[in-house]
Specification:
heterodimer, A: 303 residues, mainly alpha, MetI-like fold, 74% helix, flat, B: 429 residues, alpha/beta, D-Maltodextrin-Binding Protein, domain 2, 2 domains, 13-stranded mixed sheet, three-stranded antiparallel sheet, 18 helices, globular
């Protein structure tokens, strides 16, 4: 998503430059050309193809070039789609709120409480350690922890806290949210940490000198300046959750649906045009969400 | 495609076939097959085989190379991808190793050429299930896409299936089995006798069915009928109303919390059962074996309504001709000559040419796997691992008891697309 905004940035830079001559203008375009080619070939073109295919007809074996709209009417006309989108948005909001809260305080600790920069680096690297294993493994490791006879339940039962194993720990919305928070918090920590590190420490001292309490420093100085990082983190987390299918499938035991899971089901049944229509709807929704975030926060301000 | 799809659900029941297959090839393949010309060794021929079934067993490719000198290139995909590839890339394969319900979708497009039964050396030995639909003369023909209904055509160019036995076979049957519910006998605490038992309120939150629409709907149909909710004209080809009734029932059961989870892949079903998350669920026979191999009691419970069955075979691509076609025939004749059959029987599947397979199995193995007798000694898997100790009896008993009680075959419905849409609603509900 961030990548999409880049050609615009470059183009606007090219435009603001004083026209020295045709050669200079040409040079600017030449500079933008490689990125344009890459994004054009590997992002815009595939997206265009998906949009085109979403209007095609299909059966089990093949797709037939056509212009039909039933892929959209079937998708948008079904209560399943709406419920699935609602469910996915619910996950997105919950996971976003939790990761933002955790992410901000982890970044805050790293940026302001850890004094030496070498220690900061070490602690930050520790945050990334779980990422040395694959996404799937980190997710699946929760199953023996949360299961009916898993670690948590055995501990609770043996400690006499509950008489029967707690069922909703695994294969539930709780499990999905837990796994997603675990998987995606770092995507919030990193950009927020980055912006916090760029805050001029003199500003904090000035605020103190002007008589601000710690809380006022936080709300009036740090939070406003951390907004771009929060916005970038939000974009990461929201787009990841909106596009997630494996976490939802594994952690809900197939009981819960997400938009991407719906698409994956359609693709595994080779209903590509239906999946393409779904993808276009999801893309539009996610782009609108990102546009909304960018309207609220100017992320370029602090980059 | 191979790499990514081979872990997916459609073929997973067989994906463990390939484990340790090389060792087994050496162990079991000492009795060399005689009577085949070895001309292919001098004039190397490669056959490209793709599909859902036995394409996963490397031991077969090795043995084939050894016996015939034919190099087999195998590609495994899940069943939906197999159907698509069969139709859209007919030149990418020589042998299609697919299930019968896929053949029903694929054959009318003309990508598979019928084989002349006269050229099939062991055609006479094929069990009658694939010729008439009846294993025994008094068997009842099962619902769904029964293999014999798509097994024959009238002529070389016919695009529709023949009503009865003709000289043109669409596919040589190779592998098939009967599926039922798996249970944890230590945890269910009572006799399980019918498909309806999975809906028993006592097992609330401890059951699972598989989330592969085309197979899951059949299991659901078996349950619905066992409960007496509905009587399908043909479970394998439901009307829209029947699909609606079935899915509405599933949605209600899901919302009441009857299911713990839905599984999509082989390993998920093993883990659900082994961890005790579920005590009764749809299962495939190698998954039951995998749970048992961990020392956990698990039973492939025969049920009074009968089994849901599946079967696959080898078909010839339309483009084959000349020496390649001869080699393909020779491969299929070798395939049905017994070594592979014995191998498959020892996996817990069934070979279509039982008589030839018998010669490649010990009397004890034959007794355990096929006749339903108690094992005399340890029963080993083709990989040499102990599967059952002496005295064990196979769940469901003999070949004739199991395959004689097939209630329906895996199938493709006319209302396929509608069914899948409703199935998605069930999962989203």
């Amino acid at each position: 998503m961030v990548a999409v905004t880049e050609p615009a940035t470059i183009a606007s830079k090219a435009r603001t430059r004083k026209p020295v001559g045709r050669m200079a203008a040409l040079a600017a375009y030449l500079q933008a050309l490689p990125l344009f080619l890459i994004l054009g070939a590997f992002l815009l073109l595939p997206l265009l193809l998906i949009a085109v295919v979403s209007f095609w007809d299909y059966d089990f074996a093949a797709m037939y070039p056509d212009f039909v709209t039933f892929n959209y009417t079937e998708t948008l006309g079904s209560w399943v789609t709406w419920q699935t989108y609602l469910n996915t948005l619910k996950f997105a909001v919950i996971v976003w709120a939790i990761t933002l809260f955790i992410g901000f305080w982890v970044a805050y600790f790293l940026a302001f409480h850890v004094r030496t920069s070498s220690m900061q680096t070490v602690l930050f690297l520790i945050c990334t350690v779980p990422f040395l294993t694959s996404n799937i493994i980190r997710m699946i490791s929760w199953i023996p922890v949360l299961g009916r006879n898993g670690l948590v339940n055995s501990a609770l039962v043996e400690a006499g806290l509950v008489s029967a194993p707690v069922e909703w720990l695994l294969y539930s919305d709780f499990a999905v949210v837990l796994a997603m928070v675990h998987l995606y918090t770092l995507f919030m920590v990193t950009p927020i940490f980055n912006t916090l590190m760029r805050i001029d420490r003199a500003l904090l001292e000035a605020a103190r000198d002007a008589g601000a309490s710690s809380f006022q420093v936080l709300t009036n100085v740090i939070l406003p300046l951390a907004k771009p990082g929060m916005a970038i983190g939000t974009i990461f987390v929201v787009t990841l959750v909106m596009a997630d299918f494996s976490t939802v499938q594994v952690m809900s035991g197939g009981q819960s649906a997400s938009v991407a899971l719906m698409m994956k089901n359609q693709m595994s049944l080779l209903q590509y045009p239906a999946a393409a229509a779904n993808a276009v709807v999801l893309l539009v929704l996610v782009l609108l969400m990102v546009a909304g975030i960018l309207r609220i926060v100017d992320i370029r301000k602090e980059l | 495609m191979t790499k990514t799809t081979s872990t997916k659900a459609g073929i997973s029941r067989r994906s463990l076939l390939k484990t340790g297959a090389a060792a087994a090839g050496l162990a079991a393949g000492s009795g060399a097959i005689t009577g085949f010309p070895t001309i292919w060794a001098q004039n190397p021929i490669t056959l490209r085989q793709f599909g859902t079934g036995v394409s996963n067993i490397n031991a077969i490719a090795e043995k084939c190379k050894e016996d015939l000198g034919i190099t087999l290139e195998m590609t495994a995909t899940d069943s939906d991808a197999a159907a698509q590839r069969a139709v859209t890339q007919p030149n990418s394969y020589d042998i299609a190793d697919i299930e019968y319900w896929i053949l029903k979708k694929v054959y009318p497009s003309g990508v598979i050429q019928p084989m002349e039964t006269a050229k099939l050396k062991y055609y006479d030995k094929v069990v009658p299930l694939f010729k008439t639909g009846k294993l025994l003369p008094d068997s009842v023909i099962a619902q769904g896409t029964a293999p014999h209904t798509v097994g024959y055509v009238e002529s070389k160019d016919a695009k529709t299936f023949a009503a009865g036995e003709t000289g043109f076979f669409t596919m040589m049957p190779t592998i098939y089995n009967a599926d039922t519910l798996g249970i944890r006998p230590d945890l269910v605490g009572r006799e399980i006798t019918t498909w309806a038992d999975i809906m028993d309120p006592a097992f609330k939150g401890k059951t699972s069915i598989l989330n592969i629409p085309s197979i899951g709907i059949m299991d659901a149909a078996m349950i619905m009928e066992a409960l007496g909710n509905i009587k399908y004209a043909d479970k394998g080809n439901m009307t829209k109303e029947e699909i609606d009734a079935t899915i509405d029932f599933l949605i209600k059961a899901k919302q009441d919390g009857q299911f713990r989870a839905f599984w999509k892949s082989f390993d998920e079903s093993v883990n659900l059962m082994a961890s005790g998350e579920v005590v009764i669920q749809s299962m495939w026979s190698p998954a039951v074996a995998a749970v048992r191999s961990r020392g956990i009691a698990c039973k492939y419970q025969p049920l009074k309504e009968g089994y849901r069955s599946w079967g696959g075979g080898l078909g010839l691509a339309s483009h084959l001709s000349g020496a390649q076609l001869d080699a393909a025939y020779e491969y299929i004749n070798w395939y049905t000559s017994g070594w592979v059959g014995g191998y498959l029987n020892r996996q817990g599947y069934y070979s279509a040419c039982m008589e030839t397979a018998k010669e490649f199995m010990s009397p004890d193995e034959w007794g355990y796997w096929i006749e339903g007798k108690p094992a005399q000694g340890d029963i080993l898997s083709p990989e040499g691992k102990v599967m059952e100790k002496a005295g064990a009896v196979r769940d469901g008993g003999s070949f004739e008891e199991r395959m004689g009680k097939v209630a329906c075959w895996n199938s493709v419905m006319d209302e396929d697309r509608y069914m899948v849409r409703r199935w998605n609603e069930f999962i989203a509900a």
